[in-house]
Amino acid sequence: MSDEAARLAKIGREEYDLIRMHDAPDADEKTKYECDLSLARYQVLRGKLALEKVYNEEFVTPSKMRYLKTDLEFAEEYLRKLENTPPSSPVSE
Questions:
Q1: What values do phi and psi take at 28, rounded to 5?
Q2: What's the pLDDT band for 90 if we cut at 50, 70, 90?
Q3: What's the pLDDT tens digit per position in 27-81?
């Protein structure tokens, strides 16, 4: 397994654990907020990794590039919203 694949697998496992913590019946608002924040950071990281990988490909369609850039922009925007919102305030996606 390559370093990148191992890194993505580790992120996936951590995201799974965060989702379970977030959805636990006894999770308080602070815990849910912290889980959402971590998940948003992982989404940005995955978006950046995807763009790096695409830049190394020989042939990339403009639509694929546009999709990945847009996905990363939305992830970064959502992360900024979360970082600027106190844990008790809901954030709309």
A1: -90, 175
A2: low
A3: 999 999 999 999 999 999 999 998 988 887 778 888 999 999 999 999 999 999 9
* Contact criterion met (CB below 8 Å) for 68 and 54: yes
The two three-digit tokens of residue 10, written as one number: 């580790």
Burial of 15 (0-12, 13-18, 19+ CB in 10 A): middle
Query: Which ranges of the chain does DSSP label H, i.e. alpha helix?
Result: 3-23, 29-55, 62-83
Determine the Cα–Cα distance for residues 35 and 19; give it in Å rounded to an integer: 7
Instruction: Calculate the CA 83 to chain-centre distance.
Output: 14
